[in-house]
Inverse folding.
């Protein structure tokens, strides 16, 4: 390939969620459709996932989870502001509601994040190459400060800032998703000065909110990638040819979970059981997508290559 225009990390999220997701993610990596994975260490198939990553030399980071299943920290399972009476996290929206009501103890958030990094090291033998948040919890108020401190302490260099260019022009997104993604974007923008203060980095462009599930297609990915050239368009003519844009594309490929197998302690959710996971896998492994990457001078890479 000529000099790449875009260095693209394609991250398969939720690695470890169940054996079916693991196999689909590995198949996608071997087909050249993804270049990195994010591991849920509290998921039921995390050990299998870490073994697969070692076997196939898959670049792997940590998908910090504060919303689904049970904590890694044993003490927080018994009594914690992070869990309900059954010992499970409050859920994607429940966590946000508890945060808004000032019901979450940030010292417990910090303890859980550190324990998840510890378990990641036990499973993989090394620190994460990058660390982000399951369901974007890492950019939430208060959490972002704790998250940044923990990354800085462990010298984990990269995270995710989910601000997607072109999001607001996507009229096909249902209203409830537009509202949620708009709030995620606001939280992410507010996180930038915090992450910068701690010396944490992230790619120039984030993509993936507008291409989840059935919204993923070669043409839609090409549309999303067109925004990754925006920073280049703003540079001076003399430097444009040398500038390479870095980007991350968040994806969720896999084979649908069996109803009674997987998850983080409560069984697999509808998202994981959906055939959307197989659809994403088929698009990402499509030779026409890989041909489009070559045509657009997009080079897939891992965070450590940025």
């Amino acid at each position: 390939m000529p000099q790449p225009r875009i260095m693209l990390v394609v991250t398969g999220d939720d690695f470890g969620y169940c054996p079916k997701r693991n196999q689909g993610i590995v198949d996608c990596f071997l087909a050249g459709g993804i270049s990195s994975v994010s591991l849920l260490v509290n998921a039921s198939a995390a050990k299998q996932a870490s073994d697969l990553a070692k076997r196939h030399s898959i670049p792997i980071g940590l998908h910090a989870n504060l919303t689904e299943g049970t904590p890694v920290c044993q003490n927080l399972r018994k009594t914690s502001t992070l869990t309900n009476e059954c010992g499970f996290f409050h859920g994607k929206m429940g966590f946000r509601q508890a945060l808004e009501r000032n019901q979450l103890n940030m010292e417990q958030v910090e303890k859980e994040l550190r324990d998840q990094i510890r378990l990641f090291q036990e499973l993989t033998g090394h620190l994460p190459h990058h660390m982000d948040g399951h369901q974007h919890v890492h950019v939430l108020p208060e959490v972002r400060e704790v998250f940044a401190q923990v990354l800085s302490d462990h010298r984990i260099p990269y995270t995710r800032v989910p601000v997607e260019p072109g999001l607001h022009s996507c009229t096909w997104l249902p209203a409830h998703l537009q509202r949620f993604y708009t709030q995620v974007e606001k939280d992410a923008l507010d996180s930038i000065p915090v992450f910068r203060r701690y010396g944490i980095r992230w790619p120039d462009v984030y993509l993936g909110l507008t291409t989840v599930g059935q919204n993923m297609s070669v043409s839609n990915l090409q549309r999303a990638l067109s925004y990754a050239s925006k920073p280049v368009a703003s540079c001076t003519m003399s430097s444009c040819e040398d500038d390479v844009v870095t980007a991350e594309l968040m994806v969720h490929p896999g084979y649908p979970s069996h109803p009674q197998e997987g998850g983080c302690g409560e069984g697999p959710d509808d998202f994981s059981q959906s055939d959307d996971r197989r659809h994403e896998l088929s698009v990402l492994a499509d030779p026409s997508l890989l041909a489009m990457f070559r045509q657009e001078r997009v080079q897939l890479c891992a965070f450590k290559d940025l």
Observations:
- The mean pLDDT is 92.
- The beta strands are 6-15, 36-39, 60-64, 131-133, 205-207, 245-251, 298-300.
- The longest strand covers residues 6-15.
